[in-house]
Structure formats: structure tokens, C-alpha cells
Design goal:
alpha/beta; disordered C terminus; 12 strands; 11 helices; 3-stranded antiparallel β-sheet; flat
Length: 367
């Protein structure tokens, strides 16, 4: 009897020890979680994304991009500041998120069964598919069927685009001339630009990326689909259900907001191409219709009027009806503005209102 009592006592003590350990583990897990409450306490939302025209890029020192603007709107709705962290590719995005280097991925991550084990998909769910990017120059009719790809040279980056072409080539019985572009300095969007400029005949891109680039290059055709639809959305870690729920709710409320609508139009609908050359005749010394004004105001600041005209061309392309440089560049690039930065959506001043900004005045002093 005494022996049984000792055994029962030991089992009870073991049960108590295990219960305490489990409680400590749960408490540790809860304290280490960085969900919505902790983000609000820190006052900062760390967003992970990629450099691209559809997500994030820097133009003249200003953060821009469709996903960036949505992230900014989301952070504002939470009452916190936004910090952007950039990854090189999608695998690195996911790795950084799982390592705790960011709170949320603001990029269209493919929704797959494998990733659902470690991620919670949230925010807007988009449907994407891969398309052939080709030129429409009037001389050559654009391809309208995948069977027409046989015998064509297609240039793509390694990864999903290359893999899809290889599979499509097998389905067609071979004949597609696939070229892998392994140079790290050349992106998928650089290949789209090369197609637009006639340097290569074809490439492949997701339809949303192709659609955005077509607003810069009207000679692009992106209508030929070569893949099935793929669901994609933002994502957070499994231990951040509150943040995921907040992103879902924000998306529902934000879909019809003026800010969201403006971002959609800015990046996917408004053409950024110049309809004509803004320079009149360099041979005759005529730069623009505003030369007399440049000459007048250049004297006031002691500049060569051609330098002032060059500044105006850089900032506005001599387009008095256009908006500011938000629509002028979609490549990831850095560099300070040469003049005073126009506010987003602000119209350039017409010829009767052209003045030099204070920042254009020569600086004096010993520095």
C-alpha cells in the first residue's frame, strides 16, 4: 500500500511539472508573438515587398509603387508608421517574414497548399495569369494562339516563367525557342522594355505587371495568355491572426475609397507615354514654346536659359497639362530632384505662371 502511495505521489508531481512547463511555453509563445496589439504598441508596421513597378520603387528620393501606396493606407488605418523592407525575390520575402524581419508581405504571393501551412493569406485576393508580351507595330500581326509560339524566340528570367514555357513547349510537341536570361542585373520588367524597344521579340510576364507596363509603352500587346489563373494575396505569419483579420477588414472598407481608386488609376489605367516629342528643333536653337520665358527668368537667377529649359524638361517634359513625376518613371531608381518637388496630382503651371523655385537659387556661403 505504501509502495502504491509513493508511485501515485510521483505521478502527481510529474503531472504538475509538465503542466507548469506547458503553461510557461504558452506564455513564452504569447509574449514573443508580434501580432496587431504589439504592432500598435511599437507604433510601426514593417512591410516586406519587392522592387518592381507594381509594388515599390524610389523615384527622385520619393517612395512610390502600387503596393507601397496600399501599405501606406493600411498603416494609416492602424494609426502607425510604415517601414519598408525589400527582398530580392518571393522565397526571400517568405523567409524574412517567417524569421520575424517583417510583419506583413505586401506583394501578391501565390496561394498554394504548401504555403498555407506557414502563412495566413489576407487582404485583397487577386487572380493573375502569365501572358506573352509582344509588340504591335502595324507590320507584324500579334500572336493570338499559343500554337503560333512554335519557332519564336522568347526571352525569360529563370523561375516560373521559364518553367511554364518549358511545360508549354512539351504540350506543343517542341519548337519554342526559349532563352534564359540569367544576368542578375536584368529584371523581367527590363525584358518588357526591351520588347517595347524592339531589342527582343517576346517575353513573358504576369498580366498585372504587363498591364502596368503597357501604360508606358502603348506599342505592347499583352492579350495572349499562356497559363491558368493563379490566386494570390498578401500574407502574414501563422501567429498573427489579428493582423490578418485587420488586413481583411481594411481591404473590404478600402476597395471603394478615393485613395484606393486613385492608386489603381495612377498605376494601371493612366497612360504615361508622351504623345509627341516636346523638343521643337535643336538645330534651329528652339527648345520649346516657352523659350522666351526661360530666357526672361534665367536672367533673374543668373543662369544660362538653356540650363533652365533643361531643368524644366527633366521635371515636366514641357507638358503644362500633365501631372508631376509620379507618372514619369516606373523603374527602381534613386536620385534627388533638381528642383522643388511637385506634390502628387499637382498640375504643372502654365506658361504665364512659370517661376523658379527657391531651391533653384544659387547657394552662397562657405558651406
Amino acid at each position: 500500500m505504501k509502495r502504491h502511495l509513493i508511485i501515485y505521489s510521483l505521478l502527481f508531481l510529474l503531472f504538475c511539472v509538465l503542466s507548469c512547463r506547458n503553461k510557461q511555453a504558452v506564455a513564452t509563445e504569447e509574449s514573443s508573438a508580434h501580432d496587431l496589439e504589439q504592432i500598435k504598441d511599437s507604433g510601426e508596421l514593417v512591410v516586406l515587398t519587392l522592387y518592381s513597378s507594381t509594388s515599390y520603387f524610389i523615384y527622385r528620393g520619393q517612395d512610390m509603387g502600387f503596393q507601397y501606396e496600399l501599405s501606406e493606407q493600411f498603416a494609416k488605418s492602424l494609426g502607425v508608421k510604415l517601414r519598408i523592407e525589400v527582398a530580392k525575390n518571393v522565397p526571400e520575402l517568405i523567409r524574412k517574414l517567417l524569421n520575424g524581419e517583417g510583419d506583413i508581405i505586401a506583394y501578391n504571393i501565390p496561394i498554394t497548399k504548401e504555403l498555407k501551412d506557414s502563412l495566413i493569406y489576407c487582404g485583397e485576393e487577386v487572380i493573375t495569369h502569365q501572358v506573352i508580351v509582344q509588340r504591335t507595330n502595324g507590320k507584324t500581326k500579334p500572336l493570338k494562339d499559343v500554337t503560333e509560339l512554335v519557332g519564336k524566340n522568347i526571352y525569360v528570367k529563370p523561375g516560373k516563367y521559364y518553367e511554364r514555357l518549358v511545360n508549354l513547349n512539351k504540350e506543343l510537341g517542341g519548337g519554342i525557342l526559349i532563352h534564359q536570361v540569367t544576368n542578375d542585373s536584368i529584371t523581367a520588367e527590363d525584358l518588357i522594355t526591351q520588347v517595347a524597344h524592339g531589342k527582343i521579340p517576346y517575353t513573358v510576364a504576369d498580366n498585372d505587371v504587363a498591364k502596368l507596363n503597357a501604360t508606358y509603352y502603348p506599342n505592347l500587346n499583352t492579350s495572349l495568355s499562356i497559363s491558368f489563373d493563379q490566386r494570390a494575396s498578401w500574407a502574414v505569419r501563422k501567429d498573427c491572426p489579428q493582423l490578418a483579420a485587420a488586413a481583411d477588414e481594411w481591404h473590404k472598407q478600402n476597395m471603394t475609397s478615393p485613395a484606393y481608386t486613385a492608386s489603381m488609376k495612377r498605376y494601371f489605367e493612366i497612360s504615361k507615354a508622351m504623345p509627341h516629342s516636346p523638343i521643337l528643333s535643336l538645330k534651329e536653337g528652339k527648345i520649346s514654346h516657352y523659350d522666351n520665358l526661360f530666357k526672361k527668368y534665367a536672367q533673374e537667377i543668373g543662369w544660362d536659359w538653356r540650363l533652365l529649359a533643361s531643368l524644366a524638361y527633366t521635371e515636366s517634359n514641357f507638358d503644362s497639362k500633365g501631372t508631376d513625376a509620379i507618372n514619369a518613371c516606373h523603374r527602381p531608381c534613386n536620385g534627388g530632384s533638381t528642383g522643388q518637388r511637385a506634390k502628387p496630382g499637382r498640375k504643372y503651371q502654365s506658361c504665364g505662371e512659370i517661376h523658379c523655385s527657391d531651391r533653384s537659387q544659387p547657394k552662397h556661403g562657405t558651406g
